[in-house]
Every structure is written in C-alpha cells, then in structure tokens.
Automatic annotation (TrEMBL):
This is Transcriptional regulator. Residues 59-216 form the Pyrrolo-quinoline quinone repeat domain. It holds the Pfam family PQQ_2. Residues 297-309 have a biased composition (Basic and acidic residues). InterPro entries: PQQ_b-propeller_rpt, PQQ_rpt_dom, Quinoprotein_ADH-like_sf, WD40/YVTN_repeat-like_dom_sf.
Length: 423
C-alpha cells in the first residue's frame, strides 16, 4: 500500500476543528465526473474531477442564506440531494448545474430546536437513493426533565420517501434516533443508534412502496445504544451493533445467520474498554466494519486503548474475520462503490496524532489499497468509477495549539485490480 499526496481545490475559510468532535460539518458526493461539496456554511460547490491530472476545477457554486451545515449528499435523478444540520433541517435537490429544484424543511415535522445549539438543531442524518426515490432520515434531539427531576434524552425523527419532484410519497415516524439508511428495489433499512423512548428496535426494514414495517431487529442489550449502521443484501442485511459491539449477518426475515465480535469489552492494563462499530459496507464478497473511539466501562476518560479502535475489519461472507487495518481516527462516514471503500480519518481525540490524518482506501475482499496523507482531518469522502474525493478540514489540538491543514477538496485516482477490471 502506498502513501500519496493529491491535487486539491480550495473550499474557503472554516474555523478549525478542536480536540473534541464537532460532528459532521461537510459532505461530498460524485456525479458524472463532478464532485459536489456541501460546506459548513450551507453552500454547494461543484468541481470537475474527470481529468487524470491537475487539481479539481471549479464549475459552479450555489449559495444559501443563514448558517446551516450541509452534512449529507447523494446523487439523485441527474442532480444531487443534500441535507442540512440547521434550524430548518432542510433537504434540498439541485440540478447538476446547481439550480434548485425543490426544498423541504424537516422542522415542519420535527419541531423547532430547543436551543440554537448545534447538537440540538434538526439534523438530516442520512440520505440514500434507489431508482426514482430518495430516502432521508432526519431527527431532532432535546433534553427533557421528568416529574422526579431526572434529565432525559428525547428524539423526534422521520424517515421520508421523496419522488423526483419533491413530493413526499410516505413517512415513518418514531422517537428513536436514526443514524443510517440503505435501500433497494423493495426495502428501506433504517438503523437507530439510540432508542431512549417507546421505539425499541435498532433496525427497522420498511416496505419501499408504502413505508410499512416488514420486520425489525434489535441486539437485545440493555441501555439506549442499538445499531450504528446497516447494509442491505439480496437475502438479508449486515449491521454493526452498538449494543454489544459486534457485527451481524441477518436473514431476510431478521433471523441471525452469524455474528462476529468487533470491539467488545477487553481488559487493557486493568481498565475494561470497548469501541463502537460505527459503520458497515457489504456486498456478496463480504463485509467491512469500521470502529470508533475507545471508551471505558466506567466514566469517560481512560489511558487505555482498545486493540480494535479506529480499525477497518474485513469479514468473509460466512462471517470469518479475514483482515484488519487502522483508519487513524474517528470516521464520520464512508464513501463506497461496489467493493471499494473510502474511509475519512477525522480526530482521534485521545491520542491527537496528526501523523494519522488521512483518507484510506480499501477493497472488501483484499483489504488496504492506498493512503492519502493530509495535514488536517478528513471529514467526508466519496468514491466512484476509480476516483475518490475527500474533504479536509483544519484542526487545532488543545495540547499542541498549532493549526494544521486547510478547508479543501482532494482528488485521488485509484489504481487497483478491482478498478481496472471494471474499465
């Protein structure tokens, strides 16, 4: 596996990330040779990345009002759909030239933010498409106090099915926290990472025609934590479980075919620690799970590191663990295209090692392919047709006090047997 630098394009000014995670502030997707970046101030910027040489070339920019962050983006019907974290929690569809087709404010359904605080704003957590439908999962978080004075978490959430003209074909509402969607011709899978209320299912598989539940699954563990991500297969699904830190292969009715421990509680120098498996990508060739930060069973601070934190783990179709490799830090999402994965490495808030900042490329079956080193943290990525793009954000770690990196887009060409076999 090589390590390389790549052509870049400037995305403007951005306050640097800090030691603690700020959550998603940017998004990127690929549309027929264009990289469309959703920025932290709500704008869209499109760059031509079809050339094999030279930096990405600016094509157009679509500005917005207010101070939202575009946190999700997917190609749809020849254009792009983006989702915001903002007071309005807007979902917008733009043509490939940047013109606005339609928009929808999820606060209509979720309600107004309890306070103008980032993590309390309506949040379009996930977008996915299949055929002539775009599916969106939006949520709003707030704190409540019960009659005994106990501080409670509460979510309002909606899954939407949008037609190309912006018509809402159906919705599915819960008081759980959706984190990820996947869809095929007949199903829409919704992963819920927290279930503090009446909704008590980490995975719900909906009928794509009308939004009615087909089946549900849950790791069956105590507490609010449930599922981190889901990937549909023709005969079932693969999920990453926040409840017990394992990966599962499920049959088409929700029965468990196999499970594999990923970052389960482990004693490290007398401290029991674990890490959440936050992401999964799966095909018939197998699955890749990506884990996040180390946490102790007691409290929040620890000097120990789970041996499988910040790790991509490749698993065979039968559930055998066949490779693993570091991803450098917390990954806020994956870029995927068939068997290819692009994993952006953002902050490692415990170690804060800038040498780990990178975009890492993997193949489901073969493991690591390439590494793109960056100065700042990589917060969003996309991959298609042998091209990967990534958004870098500047960062200042509190114990170093030095600003590293810049707000910019990277492009890298993937040279692998997997890509060449498709051309």
């Amino acid at each position: 596996m090589s390590s390389q630098r790549a052509p870049t394009a400037d995305l403007g000014e951005l306050d640097p990330a800090r030691s603690r995670h700020q959550g998603r502030r940017s998004a990127v997707t690929l549309i027929d040779g264009l990289a469309v970046v959703g920025t932290a101030d709500g704008d869209l910027m499109a760059f031509d990345v079809s050339s094999d040489a030279g930096p990405p070339r600016p094509r157009w920019q679509s500005d917005t009002d207010g101070e939202p962050s575009v946190v999700s983006a997917v190609p749809f019907d020849g254009g792009v759909v983006v989702g915001e974290r903002s007071a309005r929690g807007e979902i917008r569809c733009h043509d490939a030239d940047g013109d606005l087709r339609w928009r929808y404010e999820t606060r209509t359904d979720l309600g107004e933010a309890q306070q103008e605080t980032r993590f309390l704003l309506p949040f379009v957590a996930s977008l996915t498409t299949n055929g002539d439908r775009c599916y969106a999962a939006a949520r709003r978080y707030e704190r409540r106090t019960d009659d005994d004075g106990t501080d409670l978490r509460h979510f309002e959430s909606v899954v939407y099915a949008f037609a190309p003209d912006g018509t809402i074909d159906w919705t599915y509402r819960t008081d759980g926290s959706p984190i990820s969607l996947d869809a095929d011709d007949g199903r829409v899978a919704v992963a819920y990472n927290r279930c503090p209320g009446d909704h008590q299912h980490g995975l719900v598989v909906l009928d794509a025609d009308d939004g009615d539940p087909r089946w549900m699954w849950d790791p069956g563990t105590d507490g609010q934590r449930r599922v981190g991500d889901v990937a549909l297969l023709d005969d079932g699904a693969v999920v990453s479980s926040h409840g017990d830190y394992c990966g599962y292969r499920l049959e088409s009715d929700g029965r468990e075919r196999w499970s594999v421990p990923l970052a389960t509680p482990t004693d490290v120098d007398g401290d029991t620690v674990y890490a959440y498996p936050n992401h999964v990508h799966a095909t018939e060739a197998g699955a890749v799970f990506v884990t996040g930060n180390t946490y102790p069973e007691e409290g929040r601070e620890t000097d120990a590191r789970h041996p499988s934190e910040h790790t991509a783990i490749g698993v065979s179709p039968d559930g055998d663990r066949r490779w693993d490799a570091p991803v450098g830090g917390f990954a806020s999402g994956l870029g995927t295209d068939g068997s290819l994965l692009a994993v952006p490495g953002a902050q490692n808030f415990r170690d804060r090692d800038a040498d780990d900042h990178a975009l890492r490329l993997f193949d489901i079956a073969d493991g690591p392919l390439d590494t793109l080193d960056t100065d700042g943290v990589v917060t969003a990525a996309a991959v298609a047709d042998g091209t990967a793009v990534a958004v870098e954000e500047p960062v200042v770690y509190h114990d170093e006090g030095r600003e590293r990196g810049a707000y910019r887009l990277h492009r890298v060409e993937i040279e692998s047997e997997t890509v060449r076999s498709r051309r």
